[in-house]
């Protein structure tokens, strides 16, 4: 079960429930009543504004023929992700050195620099200038840069950032 849920980790289970109900052409009101849950409560859950209780999650699992505990496990993953983000709130590179335009498709203030390090490193090294590359190198270190970029940006066994010699 866990491998099936891997791609949903960190997403509010209500949002996943909303999508599942749409795929099955089920309306929220009648579905909520079948669970003996107020429709307003289910609406709050599907909007991501309210957490699932163990009882609600079991009812949803049974109604949708999901493996028991699926929805509550998603709730746990979501809560863990929220706590991790809170703990890592101050853990980010020097944002003054990174142009917000590099991340035009994302809310710059909400980037999870630890979890999305591969995406950040790739984007900066594909589209960023020397200043951005230096900031990312200082924050993530040589090993993470090598892990993500590999051979693709090395020329003559060196990464071209002024003042930094990063060899393979």
Automatic annotation (TrEMBL):
Residues 99-149 form the DUF6922 domain. It comes from the Bacteria. One of its GO terms (molecular function) is DNA binding. InterPro entries: DUF6922 (IPR053830), Lambda_DNA-bd_dom_sf (IPR010982). Signal peptide: none annotated. This is Plasmid maintenance system antidote protein. It comes from Mucilaginibacter conchicola.
